[in-house]
Amino acid sequence: MNPAAQLSIEEIDRIIEMAWEDRTPFDAIEAQFGLPEKEVIKLMRREMKASSFRMWRERVQGRSTKHAAKQISDVFKCSLQKHITLNKISKR
């Protein structure tokens, strides 16, 4: 069965949000939701307007930050992002 068919509306919204983010690799989406890159592309095509999908594909295609194998580090988030613990932003 298609893994995307079992996702809730909230999960689909979060996947779309993560896919739009420049620094979130497809591997992070797969680790969190079990959707490989091809399935994320199918989901984006299905859930977005055609013009928005084309614009997203142009931005994402070949972008090194969207593919963990092409990234410099193994971290799924920006190094400048603050750590969040117990819903409070910790001080540096």
What would the keywords be for this entry?
2 strands; 92 residues; two-stranded antiparallel sheet; mainly alpha; 4 helices; globular
Q: How is this structure best described in words?
A:
The chain has a two-stranded antiparallel sheet. It contains four helices and two strands, in the order H-H-H-H-E-E. Helix content is 46%, strand content 4%. It is mostly helical and 92 residues long. The chain has helices spanning 9-20, 26-33, 37-47, 50-60, and strands at residues 84-85, 88-89.
Q: Could you write a compact summary of the structure shown?
A:
With 92 residues, the protein is mainly alpha-helical. Helix content is 46%, strand content 4%.
What is the overall silhouette?
A: globular
Residues in β-strands, percent: under 5%
Q: Treating each run of at least 4 consecutive H or I residues as one helix, how many helices? A: 4
Secondary structure class reads mainly alpha
Mean pLDDT: 78
Question: Termini separation (Å)?
Answer: 45 Å
Gyration radius, in Å? 14 Å
Number of domains: 1
Going across the major beta sheet, what is the strand order? 1-2
What percent of the residues sit in helical stretches (DSSP H or I)? 40-55%
Write the layout of secondary structure elements.
Layout: H1 9-20, H2 26-33, H3 37-47, H4 50-60, E1 84-85, E2 88-89
Antiparallel strand pairs: 1-2
